[in-house]
């Protein structure tokens, strides 16, 4: 019970942008002033919080404000995308202390990728100057679907030979760190709740734009993972009934109509991009997609038409999810989001509004991520902070 109460207090302080006094904590969490005082002392002794000055201009004694101590704990996050692997070291308040990025090895060989990730993590920590003992663990955001219990990646797109690769345990062995793994779209949603500011509050869906398209789900400030940890797989929502066939046997699914690989192939067929080798790897897709977006921004009408049509299709998928879950907000982000952001945000908000079933009751806000391009890696590190610090019912279980 004591550990649970400690995490409740930490979580309340974390969610308050300006910090809280002991009196305010007692009012918010419902614990006695003595319990608040005892737990606050423990947190101060563990360097997880600091006393950050006094406030109060009225009668009575000024109140001491408690805030998280940024240097009290750290976490490493890795986002594995078929095109690029991104690394961050976060402090306790979710700020990026160190960042790096490498291209995912072109052949996608699991052993080579895992070795490259482990080596980059070692360099990241050394460059940061943070003591290893202050790092709570390593979080990994991986393309789905995943086997959450086994810590394996299950047939991710554009990563050949990755069926049932034990990524979590392999990285634990290679780094000597405690490792948590989640889907990239879920990790992005976690990042938004921890570090996204106003866009990460309440109920929202995070539309993840990567080599694939998926969505993270947050309802009433709680991340939804589903029965197997694979919530948010929206690849087979039909967005274009007359669209290209999908491997599921239907036509016009998200997966077959508007993911970057499909858009690049359309650009090649339309002569926007030079005919190239088959798009068999993530780096090739990323390069072609960047050039497609550049052509659209430069005024190429065929390129612009491809991107604009994809905005319509993605908006349909987002509207289906938003209507199903009745959320406040749709947040867009992910490694392929930046070059799309202007054209998408010019078009998608109105498209979602037109398709909103609850539009006469409440508006659905459409925004870009408040975290930035590293949202997947930041979310992976936040998995560690969430696991370590957030209140969880399991902490209340007593061993017999």
Report on this structure.
The chain is α/β, with parallel strands linked by helices. The protein has 12 helices and 15 strands. The strands form 4 sheets. The chain has a 5-stranded mixed sheet, with helices on both faces. A 5-stranded mixed sheet has the order 13-12-11-14-15, with helices on both faces. Strand 14, helix 11 and strand 15 form a beta-alpha-beta unit.
Question: What can be said about this structure in brief?
Answer:
By secondary structure, the protein is an alpha/beta fold.
Strand order of the largest sheet: 6-5-4-7-10
The helix tally amounts to 12
Radius of gyration of CA atoms, rounded to a whole number: 22 Å
Helix content: 25-40%
Shape: globular
Oligomer: single chain
Helix and strand sequence: HEHHEEEEEHEEEHEHEEEHHHHEHEH
Strand coverage percent: 15-25%
Mean of pLDDT: 90
* Count of individual beta strands: 15
* Low-pLDDT sequence parts: 394-400
Q: How far apart are the first and last residues' alpha carbons, in Å?
A: 15 Å
- Given helix and strand content, the structural type is alpha/beta
SSE order and pairing:
Layout: H1 2-15, E1 20-21, H2 22-29, H3 33-45, E2 49-55, E3 63-68, E4 74-80, E5 84-91, E6 96-103, H4 110-128, E7 135-142, E8 146-147, E9 152-153, H5 167-175, E10 179-183, H6 184-195, E11 204-209, E12 213-219, E13 222-224, H7 254-257, H8 260-269, H9 282-297, H10 301-325, E14 329-333, H11 341-354, E15 365-368, H12 375-389
Parallel strand pairs: 4-7, 7-10, 11-14, 14-15
Antiparallel strand pairs: 1-3, 2-3, 4-5, 5-6, 8-9, 11-12, 12-13
Annotation keywords:
disordered C terminus, alpha/beta, single chain, 400 residues, 40% helix, 12 helices, five-stranded mixed β-sheet, 15 strands
């Amino acid at each position: 019970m004591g550990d649970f109460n400690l995490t409740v207090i930490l979580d309340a302080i974390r969610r308050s942008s300006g910090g809280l006094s002991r009196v305010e904590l007692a009012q918010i969490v419902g614990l006695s002033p003595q319990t608040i005082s005892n737990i606050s002392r423990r947190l101060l002794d563990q360097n997880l919080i600091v006393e950050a000055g006094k406030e109060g201009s009225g009668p009575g004694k000024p109140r001491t404000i408690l805030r998280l101590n940024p240097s009290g704990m750290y976490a490493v996050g890795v986002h594995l995308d078929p095109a690029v692997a991104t690394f961050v070291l976060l402090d306790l308040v979710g700020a990026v202390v160190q960042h790096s990025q490498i291209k995912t090895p072109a052949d996608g060989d699991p052993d080579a990728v895992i070795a490259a990730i482990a080596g980059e993590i070692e360099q990241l920590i050394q460059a940061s100057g943070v003591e290893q003992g202050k790092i709570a663990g390593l979080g990994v955001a991986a393309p789905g679907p995943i086997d959450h219990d086994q810590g394996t990646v299950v047939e991710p797109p554009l990563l050949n030979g990755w069926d049932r690769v034990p990524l979590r345990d392999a990285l634990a062995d290679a780094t000597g760190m405690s490792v948590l793994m989640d889907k990239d779209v879920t990790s992005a949603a976690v990042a938004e709740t921890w570090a996204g500011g106003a866009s990460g509050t309440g109920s929202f869906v995070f539309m993840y734009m990567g080599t694939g398209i998926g969505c993270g789900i947050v309802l009433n400030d709680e991340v939804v993972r589903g029965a197997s940890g694979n919530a948010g797989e929206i690849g087979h929502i039909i967005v274009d009934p007359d669209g290209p066939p999908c491997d599921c046997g239907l036509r016009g699914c998200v997966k077959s109509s508007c993911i970057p690989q499909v858009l690049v192939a359309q650009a090649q067929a339309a002569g926007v991009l030079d005919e190239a080798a088959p798009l068999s790897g993530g780096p090739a897709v990323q390069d072609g997609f960047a050039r497609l977006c550049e052509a659209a921004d430069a005024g190429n009408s065929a390129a612009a038409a491809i991107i604009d049509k994809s905005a319509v299709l993605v908006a349909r998928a987002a509207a289906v999810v938003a209507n199903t879950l009745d959320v406040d907000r749709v947040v867009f982000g992910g490694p392929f989001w930046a070059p799309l952001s202007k054209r998408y945000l010019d078009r998608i908000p109105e498209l979602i509004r037109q398709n909103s079933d609850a539009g006469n009751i409440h508006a659905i806000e459409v925004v870009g991520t408040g975290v930035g391009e590293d949202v997947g890696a930041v979310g992976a590190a936040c998995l560690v902070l969430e696991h370590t610090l957030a209140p969880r019912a399991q902490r209340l279980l007593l061993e017999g």
